[in-house]
Amino acid sequence: MNAMAKGQRHLSDHVGAVVKRLRQEVPSCVASGAVDMATGMLLAYETTDSHPSEVLDLLAGATLDLFQGRTVTMIEDIFKERRGVSTAEHYFQEILVNSTNLTHLFIRNNEEDDVVAVVVCPKSVNIGMLFASARRVIREHGGF
Prior knowledge:
Blueprint: H1 3-25, E1 31-36, E2 41-47, H2 53-68, H3 70-83, E3 94-98, E4 102-108, E5 115-122, H4 127-140
Antiparallel strand pairs: 1-2, 1-5, 3-4, 4-5
Helix pairs in contact: 1-4, 2-3
Protein name: Roadblock/LAMTOR2 domain-containing protein
């Protein structure tokens, strides 16, 4: 196995471990995953229920749109211009979405901003605990 393949394998194992810990340690978590923002691909996921692969693929695409869609990118560019920021840093770091029955937390990793963690819980989840637990897991793993 060459060095590049070993590095990709290590990253894959690391992402899988973070996703597993999110699923285990975030209160009431029913699903967790990680999306590669460079490709829009779902890198890893864990869920308490089975979901069709089409739904999982759409989740990855929706995550990409939330963080890097054309309008979002335009907003970030305007903020950077007005504030005199010249870095490639993204402004939108965390997004919380409530659906009819679920709460979805999307967190861009500070260490590797090409990866976004997704945590799904029942809508009844304590939002403060959701944020605190998810942030802690990602921080303890040094990001992705």
